[in-house]
Write a structure and sequence with these properties.
single chain, seven-stranded mixed sheet, alpha+beta, six-stranded mixed sheet, 409 residues, 13 strands
Length: 409
């Protein structure tokens, strides 16, 4: 067994920024991505933000000879944007949609309509069973005042739990995608600490690309320079993470990122840089499970920090629910008052109308709209409160289990 040659796997990961009618040079860039995938011959291509199924079908047709197996994950109103192209047969797929994903009334952001999710593919390569995960978490938008941080922490927790519970039969776990988190953020530390996944950038023997492995860089003509002002070198939010289980060990031989434009071209693939990882998978004699028996004391602090962020989001959601509930009650009282006034006029109790009929009708319409909108938002924020409460309770139980393990050492 130990004399078997190691398996080398080349992974291409990219947030394609392919929004129909909005993304610049979308068709040209999709064609460029297809050409690169055809020429380079990667083993797996993990793509995000392929919002148009038509773009996916064009890529599928173009890449059929080199990547005979592919899958497009559908969710939300406009789709998850997640798709995978593989040289090897896809044995099974599954999609898990995150329970919290922003707010439907934040139309300028649109994350809620995407149905952000994590897609799982089961692939067997040369006798090695891979569980491949591709995901895209909620965007940050404003780091100083990040209203979506609790939602993104919940997504990171659900992603970690999903991997933990679905990867037990795998030989190798592989996660790629736009996590929208800096390497030191609580969400990425929670994800890596809970699952034991390793970062290809931190572990690679050879790196070539942007400094610090950044994937949003000022040199990219599509990147918002205003968003990157606090980060002159750029930020790293796109990752290839991995872990060997059972009798296998994985290491990253090399990692490459693009540096503003596609190699040999005049435009970038996307507003994100592509991440290209070459992984080496070796078989080892001793078995190793998904979760080691040792518990890192730092993980307790990370889970505690994440739980605090969830509590902050819970308090904010409760305030929003209270505000919308109060607005709905006031609008309902106003409608009841108007109904009483209208009824009194009909039975002749009051011969004089206190308001002109047009103003009376307009006020009734306004109160009805406020009642409906407030009621819908009250229900939405009630669901948000329930999800945050559930996650906070899961983290509490996880902390208790971690502390019990540490106490028994």
């Amino acid at each position: 067994m130990d004399t078997e040659p190691p398996l080398q796997l080349r992974i291409f990961d990219l947030n394609c920024w392919a929004i129909r009618y909005l993304s610049k040079l979308r068709q040209e860039r999709i064609g460029l991505i297809g050409d690169t995938l055809s020429q380079e011959g990667f083993d797996l291509a993990l793509l995000q933000e392929v919002w148009s199924e038509r773009d996916y079908c064009e890529l599928k047709q173009k890449l059929a000879a080199h990547y005979p197996y592919s899958h497009y994950f559908k969710s939300g109103v406009i789709g998850s944007g997640l798709c995978v192209f593989s040289k090897y047969p896809i044995l099974d797929t599954f999609l898990y949609q995150y329970s919290l994903n922003g707010y439907p009334y934040m139309l300028q952001h649109g994350d809620w309509f995407c149905g952000k999710a994590v897609g799982l593919l089961v692939i067997k390569i040369c006798g090695v069973l891979f569980h491949v995960y591709v995901t895209h978490l909620h965007a940050e938008y404003c780091r100083e005042k990040d209203a979506y941080l609790p939602h993104r922490v919940v997504q990171a927790w659900e992603l970690a739990q999903f991997i933990q519970h679905t990867a037990k039969g795998a030989d190798v776990v592989l996660l790629g995608g736009d996590l929208n988190m800096h390497p030191g953020d609580v969400g990425i530390r929670l994800l890596r600490g809970w699952t034991g996944l390793r970062d290809s950038f931190a572990d690679t023997e050879t790196f070539e690309g942007c400094e610090d492995g950044c994937t949003l860089v000022p040199a990219n003509c599509f990147t918002s320079k205003m968003d990157l002002q606090p980060f002159p070198l750029g930020i790293r939010i796109d990752y290839v993470l991995y872990k060997g289980l059972s009798h296998f060990v994985v290491k990253c031989d090399s990692l490459v990122t693009t540096t503003g434009i596609a190699p040999g071209k005049s435009i970038p693939y996307s507003d994100h840089e592509a991440v290209i990882a070459t992984l080496c998978v070796k078989r080892r004699q001793e078995a190793k499970g998904l979760g080691g028996s040792a518990v890192e004391p730092e993980l307790v602090d990370v889970v505690n920090e994440a739980r605090t962020e969830v509590r902050v989001g819970l308090h904010a959601a409760e305030r929003q629910r209270y505000t919308n509930g109060r607005m709905a009650i006031l609008a309902l009282l106003l409608l009841l008052l108007q109904a009483a006034m209208g009824l009194s006029s009909l039975v002749g109790w009051d011969s004089q109308q206190p308001f002109p009929k047009f103003s009376f009708s307009l006020l009734s319409l306004l109160a009805t709209v406020v009642l409906l909108v407030s009621a819908v938002l009250y229900v939405f924020h009630t669901i948000e409160v329930r999800m945050l409460q559930g996650t906070e309770e899961q983290m509490r139980l996880a902390l208790q289990a971690l502390q019990d393990k540490l106490g028994s050492l």
